[in-house]
Amino acid sequence: MAESGSGASAGPGSENTVRELERILRYWGGNLRHYELKPGDGSVIYDSGYGEVGAWRVTSPDGSEDADGPEGAAATAEPE
User: Fold this and answer.
1) Most CB atoms closer than 10 Å: which of 13, 36, 42, 70?
2) Which residue has the higher pLDDT, 13 or 26?
């Protein structure tokens, strides 16, 4: 996830990696309004190069993705 020509390290914890994660989370958070956030909802997460870097989904407290499951669903992120 390094920027071309930046000269900075692209490893975990590098400045470029942190900036990319900030960008991903801002974009992801801004799109949450498009989801009902009920069990079964979810989406792939992309980096700025449109590469798939993970996914998130909403599950019920028992861990199922059943949309008719119990109330109180929680969002969980699944890194790839």
Assistant:
1) 42
2) 26
Work out the pLDDT band at 65, boundaries 50, 70, 90.
confident
In one-letter notation, the amino acid at residue 32 is L
Say if residues 80 and 52 touch (Cβ distance below 8 Å): yes
Please count the structural domains in the chain. 1
Whether pTM exceeds 0.70: no
Assigned token pair, 67: 């949309």
Is residue 24 included in any domain, yes or no?
yes
Does a structural domain hold residue 50?
yes
Query: Nearest 5 degrees, angle CA 49-CA 19-CA 31?
Result: 65
**Enclosing domain of residue 24:** 15-79
How confident is the model over 50-79, as a mean pLDDT?
A: 72
